[in-house]
Amino acid sequence: MAQGHRHEEQTFNEFYTEVKEIEKRDSVLTSKQQIDRLLRPGATYFNLNPFEVLQLDCDTPLEQIKKKYRSLSILVHPDKNPDNLDRAQQAFEIISKAYKTLENETTRKKCLEVYEEAKDRTDMMIAEKKKKLKKDGKFDGVPEDDPAKYKHAIYVMVMKLFADIERRRQQLEVRDMEERKRKREAEIEEEEQRDLQKEWQKNFEESRQSRVNSWHTFQAGSSSAAASSSSSTAATTSTTVKSKKSKKAKYTSFNPPKIKPETR
């Protein structure tokens, strides 16, 4: 882990040295040089810092910031670079974004707070280094005792802090997007449930009369069947009664034969 960190820091330092050399060469402020500076490989990392984009120190007054913005925006403006329109447009947008950040008092203050935090962290890191050296019995000092290297250490820390801020912003953006997506899916599901309920209610209401008619038909059929059954029962009962009366009458009118006198 420590070896990887040292390798990363070494790579960054080499890149930083290269960038500073390019900036010295680009101090003449030609259009092509400025466009190349802003769009060089790895520039996205550096362009997070608006002071870096405009090549200014963090304590530069706002009036000077405006002047530098005007000069750079003219140099990289697409109208001034018809042979390099796409790259010029990208560079112009980077410069415009940096200026808007520093023009606004609130966002400029946040950028200055990054510098203050970078300085505090660098000082803490140097103190830890010296403490360790003292514990090991070494009192030769640290590289950051050199003002140039101290400034470089702060610069590196500033870049890291801006990168951390950007990563957090992207993470929050992703979470926010996922939350909005989740809420939208829930809303869609609720809307579908409401639509299904409305459809069910509509079908229920439309079929109500049909159900009522079916019930009336059933009731009417039941009444007719009952009446028919009652008539049939009455007829059967009447027939049975008549049959009994007829049999009774038959047996009642029976006359026994007369007994003849015996002849001797």
Task: Give your account of this protein's structure.
Helices cover 80% and strands 0% of the residues. With 264 residues, the protein is mainly α. The chain has two domains: 12-103, Helix Hairpins (Orthogonal Bundle), CATH 1.10.287; 116-218. The model has no long low-confidence stretch (mean pLDDT 80).
Integer count of domains: 2
Query: How far apart, in Å, are the first and last alpha carbons?
Result: 159 Å
Q: Can you write the helix and strand succession as a string?
A: HHHHHHHHH
The chain-level structural class is mainly alpha
Assign a percent range to the helix content: over 70%
Averaged pLDDT, please?
A: 80
Mass-distribution shape:
elongated
Are there runs of 5+ residues with pLDDT below 50, and where? none
The DSSP helix count reads 9
Spatial extent as radius of gyration: 51 Å
Sheet with the most strands?
none
Strand content: under 5%
Number of strands: 0
Subunit arrangement of the protein: single chain
GO cellular component, one term: nucleus
Region (Disordered): 176-264
Domain J: 49-119
Biased composition (Polar residues): 210-221
List the helices and strands and how they pair.
Blueprint: H1 2-25, H2 31-39, H3 43-46, H4 50-53, H5 62-76, H6 85-103, H7 105-135, H8 147-206, H9 208-252
Helix pairs in contact: 2-6, 5-6, 7-8
Question: TL;DR of this structure?
Answer:
Residues 176-186, 194-209 have a biased composition (Basic and acidic residues). 80% of the residues lie in helices and 0% in strands.
Task: List its salient traits.
264 residues; mainly alpha; Helix Hairpins; 80% helix
